[in-house]
């Protein structure tokens, strides 16, 4: 709907894939993104590398996820270890990428009647044109 309102629907292609196994097969896109995917055992670095291969020259990669936090004590250890800092993903970027945002961004959440702040990891990078 937003693409239609912006007059770019004919230039917009939406893909929903399993990022852990994604192969762009020679295709490239202006924006490749994943939000709150937390594969186990540090797998987000591999996912970011896979997604980066699909970014067109001049395009962008956006990865957002939960940063490690004491507030996630209710999760099992495997799920907590799947969280990442944005800087953890930098080794996944090919040499022709420029990191534009590599940070944790704080936000307020409410759970079980309690309100607290957590950090989301944000990696936003541009591939050279």
Overview of this protein structure:
The protein has helices at 2-5, 44-52, 77-81; strands at 29-35, 55-66, 97-111, 114-127. The protein has 129 residues and is mainly beta. A four-stranded mixed sheet has the order 1-2-4-3, with helices on one face.
Write the layout of secondary structure elements.
Blueprint: H1 2-5, E1 29-35, H2 44-52, E2 55-66, H3 77-81, E3 97-111, E4 114-127
Parallel strand pairs: 1-2
Antiparallel strand pairs: 2-4, 3-4
How would you sum up this structure in a few lines?
The chain is mainly beta. Helices cover 14% and strands 37% of the residues.
- Total number of helical segments? 3
Mean pLDDT: 89
Q: How much helix is in the residues?
A: 10-25%
Largest sheet: 4 strands, mixed
CA-based shape: globular
Structural class per helix/strand content?
mainly beta
Strand content: 35-45%
Would you list the SSEs in sequence order as H and E?
Answer: HEHEHEE
Radius of gyration: 16 Å
Ends apart, CA distance between termini:
29 Å
Weakly predicted, low-confidence segments: none
Give a count of the beta strands, DSSP E runs of length 2 or more. Answer: 4
């Amino acid at each position: 709907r937003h693409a239609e309102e912006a007059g770019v629907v004919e230039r917009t292609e939406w893909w929903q894939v399993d990022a852990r196994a994604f192969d762009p097969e020679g295709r490239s896109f202006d924006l490749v993104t994943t939000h709150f995917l937390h594969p186990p055992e540090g797998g987000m670095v591999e996912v970011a590398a896979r997604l980066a291969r699909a970014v067109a020259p001049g395009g962008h990669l956006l990865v957002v996820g939960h940063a490690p936090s004491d507030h996630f004590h209710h999760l099992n250890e495997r799920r907590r270890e799947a969280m990442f800092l944005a800087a953890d993903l930098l080794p996944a970027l090919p040499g022709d990428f420029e990191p534009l945002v590599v940070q944790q961004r704080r936000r307020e959440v409410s759970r079980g009647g309690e309100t607290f702040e957590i950090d989301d990891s944000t990696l936003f990078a541009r591939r050279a044109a």
